[in-house]
Each structure stands twice: as structure tokens, then as C-alpha cells.
Amino acid sequence: MIRVLFVCLGNICRSPLAEAIFNSKVKQAGMQAQFKCDSAGTSDFHIGELPDERTINCAAKYQLPLHHRGRQVNRTDFRDFEYILAMDDNNLRNLNNLKVRYGFADKEIFLMRDFVDATQGMSVPDPYYGGEEGFEEIYQILDEALDSFLANVKARHQLYA
Ligand code: 4NP
Questions:
Q1: What is the tens place of the pLDDT at every residue in 69-83?
Q2: Where would one find coiled-coil regions in this protein (predicted)?
Q3: Which range marks the domain in which residue 119 is found?
Q4: Most Cβ neighbours (<10 Å): which of 6, 35, 83, 110?
């Protein structure tokens, strides 16, 4: 079982949407038995909350089931998840500090867009203070990034549906 954790700041916009999109792609590929994914935030701002209303609307538009409550990244996540993917530089920096503090200094943390050659090092922009259109933008970014991530992981682990 390959465990994947998507991480943003609040865990109500980008990372729960990434989780929903990835679950849908895994299902479409018939690989539900091989993957388990979850999402979390670096902050404690929205623990226990449903995703942002705009995230819910975006998921509904693309018919993606969304079952998540906000939670904060914790120590055991570094042990339990093989792939931890940060949405932006700020999340990446926080995760790289946390992993050292929690005794997982060697753990590699990835940036979500690093799996698309043309977008390496780029962020999935924080849509929180913008409008509804920002959610369409992050959907498109995540859709592309997650296709590449899934293809990369399938190749790396020699997974065939
Ligand atoms: P997310 O977006 O990190 O994609 O979930 C945000 C959600 C909440 C806040 C910032 C970003 N906030 O400041 O409360």
C-alpha cells in the first residue's frame, strides 16, 4: 500500500481538493487497493472543519466525492506516509523543519508541482483570499500535477492495474 499525504496551510482548500482528485484518478485506474491518501494542514486554523465552501463547490462541479475534516500534520505522518507533497514553498519549509524536530530528518518532502517538468519549483497558489475563479485555477493545476505524480509513482513502483 502506497500512502500519500497532501499538505497545505489550512487543509480546507488545496490539499483536500488534491486528495479528492487523486482518489478519483486512482479509482479510474483501478488501483484503489494500492493507494491510501489523506490531507493535512501545517496550521491549526481549521482543525475539525469541513472544506471551504468554494472547495466543496469545485469538487461538486467535477463530481468528486469530498470526505474530509481539517487536521494538522503530526509526528506520525512522517512515519506513516511514503509520499508527503507540499502545495507551496511555505508548506515545504514548515514540513522540512517539522521532520527534523520529529526525528525524520532524512525523509524527502516533495513539492506538488515537481512532477511536471515544466512546473518544477512552482507553487499551487493559495486561493483562500481570492474568488471562486482561484479554485478553478487550482483544480486545473492539481489535475495536471496529479496525472504526472500518479504516472511517476506507477513507474517507480512498477504498478500495473
Ligand atoms: P489552504 O488555504 O491552505 O489551501 O487550505 C487556506 C485556508 C485557510 C487559510 C489560508 C489558506 N487561513 O489563513 O485561514
A1: 999 999 999 999 999
A2: none
A3: 2-153
A4: 6
